[in-house]
Amino acid sequence: MSPLAVLLSWTGHNFQPTLQIKNSSKSNVWFLFFKDCRKDFTVIFLVDRARDVGRDNVQRQLEFIISVASTISFNDIAVISYATDAEIVIRPGQASNFSEFAQTLRDANYSMGHMKNLGEALTKSQNIAELFNPSKPGLVVAMISGKSHDDTSLPAEELKKKGVTIVALVFGTSYSQAQITLLVSIPENDHKLKTDFDSLKHFISTTRNKICKGNALNS
Question: Number of folded domains in the chain?
Protein backbone atom coordinates (compact mmCIF):
# COMPACT_ATOMS: atom_id res chain seq x y z
CA MET A 1 0.00 0.00 0.00
CA SER A 2 1.46 3.37 -0.98
CA PRO A 3 1.86 6.15 1.58
CA LEU A 4 -1.07 8.54 1.79
CA ALA A 5 -1.20 12.05 3.21
CA VAL A 6 -4.29 14.17 3.70
CA LEU A 7 -4.48 17.64 5.28
CA LEU A 8 -7.72 18.90 6.75
CA SER A 9 -8.45 21.91 8.92
CA TRP A 10 -11.65 23.31 10.38
CA THR A 11 -12.77 26.01 12.79
CA GLY A 12 -15.20 26.13 15.63
CA HIS A 13 -15.08 27.08 19.31
CA ASN A 14 -11.57 28.45 18.76
CA PHE A 15 -10.34 24.93 18.03
CA GLN A 16 -8.42 24.76 14.77
CA PRO A 17 -6.62 21.45 14.49
CA THR A 18 -4.68 20.37 11.47
CA LEU A 19 -5.26 16.74 10.58
CA GLN A 20 -2.65 14.76 8.72
CA ILE A 21 -3.30 11.13 7.88
CA LYS A 22 -0.35 8.95 6.93
CA ASN A 23 -0.44 5.28 6.12
CA SER A 24 2.79 3.48 6.98
CA SER A 25 3.68 0.94 4.33
CA LYS A 26 5.67 -1.04 6.93
CA SER A 27 3.04 -1.56 9.63
CA ASN A 28 -0.24 -0.35 8.13
CA VAL A 29 -0.62 2.06 11.05
CA TRP A 30 -2.61 5.21 10.42
CA PHE A 31 -1.29 8.30 12.20
CA LEU A 32 -3.36 11.44 12.75
CA PHE A 33 -1.61 14.52 14.05
CA PHE A 34 -3.68 17.21 15.78
CA LYS A 35 -2.93 20.18 17.91
CA ASP A 36 -2.88 19.27 21.59
CA CYS A 37 -6.09 18.61 23.51
CA ARG A 38 -4.95 21.39 25.84
CA LYS A 39 -6.06 19.26 28.77
CA ASP A 40 -4.01 17.16 31.14
CA PHE A 41 -5.45 13.69 31.61
CA THR A 42 -4.65 10.02 32.09
CA VAL A 43 -6.22 7.45 29.78
CA ILE A 44 -6.19 3.66 30.09
CA PHE A 45 -6.96 1.43 27.11
CA LEU A 46 -8.35 -2.04 27.87
CA VAL A 47 -7.44 -4.54 25.13
CA ASP A 48 -9.64 -7.59 24.54
CA ARG A 49 -7.37 -10.62 24.01
CA ALA A 50 -9.95 -13.36 24.59
CA ARG A 51 -9.54 -16.35 22.29
CA ASP A 52 -12.62 -15.51 20.21
CA VAL A 53 -11.00 -12.21 19.20
CA GLY A 54 -8.01 -13.81 17.46
CA ARG A 55 -4.39 -12.67 17.33
CA ASP A 56 -4.82 -10.53 14.22
CA ASN A 57 -7.55 -8.49 15.91
CA VAL A 58 -5.49 -8.12 19.08
CA GLN A 59 -2.80 -6.64 16.85
CA ARG A 60 -5.34 -4.31 15.25
CA GLN A 61 -6.28 -3.02 18.70
CA LEU A 62 -2.63 -2.37 19.54
CA GLU A 63 -1.93 -0.51 16.30
CA PHE A 64 -5.09 1.51 16.91
CA ILE A 65 -3.83 2.53 20.36
CA ILE A 66 -0.44 3.45 18.92
CA SER A 67 -2.14 5.62 16.31
CA VAL A 68 -4.31 7.36 18.91
CA ALA A 69 -1.24 7.85 21.10
CA SER A 70 0.42 9.71 18.23
CA THR A 71 -2.31 12.39 18.55
CA ILE A 72 -2.04 12.94 22.32
CA SER A 73 0.64 12.63 24.99
CA PHE A 74 1.78 8.99 25.03
CA ASN A 75 3.21 9.59 28.51
CA ASP A 76 -0.35 9.89 29.82
CA ILE A 77 -1.44 6.48 28.48
CA ALA A 78 -1.61 3.08 30.16
CA VAL A 79 -2.65 -0.19 28.50
CA ILE A 80 -4.18 -3.24 30.17
CA SER A 81 -4.87 -6.45 28.26
CA TYR A 82 -7.50 -8.88 29.45
CA ALA A 83 -9.00 -12.31 28.83
CA THR A 84 -9.45 -14.69 31.78
CA ASP A 85 -6.99 -12.48 33.68
CA ALA A 86 -5.87 -8.88 33.26
CA GLU A 87 -2.30 -7.63 32.90
CA ILE A 88 -0.80 -4.15 32.81
CA VAL A 89 1.15 -3.83 29.55
CA ILE A 90 2.47 -0.31 30.08
CA ARG A 91 2.02 2.39 32.71
CA PRO A 92 1.88 6.17 32.22
CA GLY A 93 5.38 7.57 31.87
CA GLN A 94 7.01 4.15 31.54
CA ALA A 95 8.32 4.77 28.02
CA SER A 96 10.98 7.42 27.49
CA ASN A 97 9.87 8.16 23.93
CA PHE A 98 7.09 7.32 21.49
CA SER A 99 9.06 4.61 19.69
CA GLU A 100 9.65 2.82 22.99
CA PHE A 101 5.94 3.14 23.82
CA ALA A 102 4.95 1.55 20.51
CA GLN A 103 7.57 -1.20 20.73
CA THR A 104 6.55 -2.09 24.29
CA LEU A 105 2.98 -2.67 23.14
CA ARG A 106 4.06 -4.74 20.14
CA ASP A 107 6.56 -6.88 22.06
CA ALA A 108 4.35 -7.77 25.03
CA ASN A 109 2.97 -11.29 25.45
CA TYR A 110 -0.76 -11.50 24.75
CA SER A 111 -1.85 -14.97 25.78
CA MET A 112 -5.30 -15.82 24.45
CA GLY A 113 -7.69 -16.80 27.24
CA HIS A 114 -10.95 -18.73 27.02
CA MET A 115 -12.82 -16.21 29.17
CA LYS A 116 -13.54 -12.54 28.50
CA ASN A 117 -13.38 -10.80 31.89
CA LEU A 118 -13.61 -7.08 31.31
CA GLY A 119 -14.50 -6.65 34.98
CA GLU A 120 -11.02 -7.93 35.86
CA ALA A 121 -9.49 -5.26 33.64
CA LEU A 122 -11.62 -2.51 35.20
CA THR A 123 -10.52 -3.66 38.65
CA LYS A 124 -6.87 -3.77 37.52
CA SER A 125 -7.26 -0.15 36.36
CA GLN A 126 -7.47 0.88 39.99
CA ASN A 127 -3.80 -0.09 40.31
CA ILE A 128 -2.89 2.83 38.04
CA ALA A 129 -2.54 5.63 40.59
CA GLU A 130 -2.36 8.34 37.93
CA LEU A 131 -5.99 7.61 37.04
CA PHE A 132 -7.10 9.25 40.29
CA ASN A 133 -5.00 12.40 40.30
CA PRO A 134 -7.45 15.13 41.41
CA SER A 135 -5.78 17.68 39.15
CA LYS A 136 -5.65 15.37 36.14
CA PRO A 137 -8.94 13.76 35.00
CA GLY A 138 -8.91 10.06 34.19
CA LEU A 139 -10.57 8.15 31.38
CA VAL A 140 -10.87 4.44 30.53
CA VAL A 141 -11.43 3.26 26.95
CA ALA A 142 -12.81 -0.28 27.23
CA MET A 143 -12.50 -2.25 24.00
CA ILE A 144 -14.64 -5.37 23.82
CA SER A 145 -15.91 -7.85 21.24
CA GLY A 146 -19.03 -9.60 22.48
CA LYS A 147 -20.10 -9.90 26.09
CA SER A 148 -17.96 -9.96 29.21
CA HIS A 149 -18.23 -13.18 31.21
CA ASP A 150 -17.76 -11.46 34.57
CA ASP A 151 -19.55 -8.56 36.20
CA THR A 152 -18.53 -5.16 34.86
CA SER A 153 -21.12 -2.97 36.55
CA LEU A 154 -19.60 -2.92 40.06
CA PRO A 155 -15.98 -2.13 39.09
CA ALA A 156 -17.25 0.39 36.53
CA GLU A 157 -19.39 2.09 39.16
CA GLU A 158 -16.43 2.27 41.54
CA LEU A 159 -14.35 4.00 38.87
CA LYS A 160 -17.11 6.43 37.96
CA LYS A 161 -17.70 7.33 41.62
CA LYS A 162 -14.03 8.34 41.75
CA GLY A 163 -14.52 10.69 38.81
CA VAL A 164 -13.24 8.43 36.02
CA THR A 165 -14.95 8.66 32.63
CA ILE A 166 -15.56 5.33 30.86
CA VAL A 167 -15.94 5.02 27.10
CA ALA A 168 -16.77 1.71 25.40
CA LEU A 169 -15.40 0.83 21.98
CA VAL A 170 -17.56 -2.12 20.95
CA PHE A 171 -16.71 -4.48 18.09
CA GLY A 172 -19.40 -6.33 16.16
CA THR A 173 -23.03 -6.87 17.14
CA SER A 174 -22.91 -9.66 19.73
CA TYR A 175 -22.44 -7.36 22.71
CA SER A 176 -24.86 -6.98 25.62
CA GLN A 177 -26.62 -3.63 25.47
CA ALA A 178 -27.58 -3.88 29.15
CA GLN A 179 -23.93 -4.50 30.05
CA ILE A 180 -22.72 -1.54 28.00
CA THR A 181 -25.35 0.75 29.52
CA LEU A 182 -24.09 -0.01 33.03
CA LEU A 183 -20.46 0.20 31.92
CA VAL A 184 -20.17 3.61 30.28
CA SER A 185 -20.47 7.11 31.64
CA ILE A 186 -23.60 9.13 30.91
CA PRO A 187 -24.97 10.23 28.56
CA GLU A 188 -24.52 6.78 27.03
CA ASN A 189 -24.57 7.90 23.40
CA ASP A 190 -21.59 10.18 24.06
CA HIS A 191 -19.54 7.36 25.56
CA LYS A 192 -20.24 4.40 23.28
CA LEU A 193 -18.59 3.76 19.92
CA LYS A 194 -19.49 0.81 17.68
CA THR A 195 -17.35 -0.52 14.86
CA ASP A 196 -15.67 -3.68 13.62
CA PHE A 197 -12.01 -4.61 13.61
CA ASP A 198 -11.51 -3.97 9.89
CA SER A 199 -12.89 -0.43 10.27
CA LEU A 200 -11.02 0.40 13.46
CA LYS A 201 -8.55 2.71 11.76
CA HIS A 202 -11.42 5.03 10.84
CA PHE A 203 -12.19 5.59 14.54
CA ILE A 204 -8.83 7.08 15.49
CA SER A 205 -9.96 10.71 15.29
CA THR A 206 -13.35 9.93 16.87
CA THR A 207 -11.71 8.17 19.82
CA ARG A 208 -9.17 10.94 20.19
CA ASN A 209 -12.00 13.48 20.36
CA LYS A 210 -13.86 11.36 22.92
CA ILE A 211 -10.73 11.37 25.07
CA CYS A 212 -10.33 15.13 24.82
CA LYS A 213 -14.01 15.95 25.28
CA GLY A 214 -14.85 13.11 27.66
CA ASN A 215 -12.54 14.37 30.35
CA ALA A 216 -14.29 17.73 30.30
CA LEU A 217 -17.56 16.03 31.26
CA ASN A 218 -16.23 15.01 34.67
CA SER A 219 -13.94 17.93 35.27
Answer: 1
**pTM, to two decimals:** 0.82
**pLDDT tens per residue across span 137-183:** 899 999 999 999 999 999 999 999 999 999 999 998 989 999 999 99
Gap between the Cα atoms of 18 and 130, Å rounded: 29
User: Domain range holding 89?
Assistant: 38-217
Beta bridge partners of 165: 139
pLDDT at 2 over 70: no
Q: Which residues of 160-174 are buried (b: 16+ CB within 10 A; e: fewer)?
A: beeebbbbbbbbeee
CATH number at 67 reads 3.40.50.410
Instruction: Specify if 71 maps to a domain.
Output: yes
Residues 18-35: what's their mean pLDDT?
39
* Amino acid, single-letter form, for residue 44: I
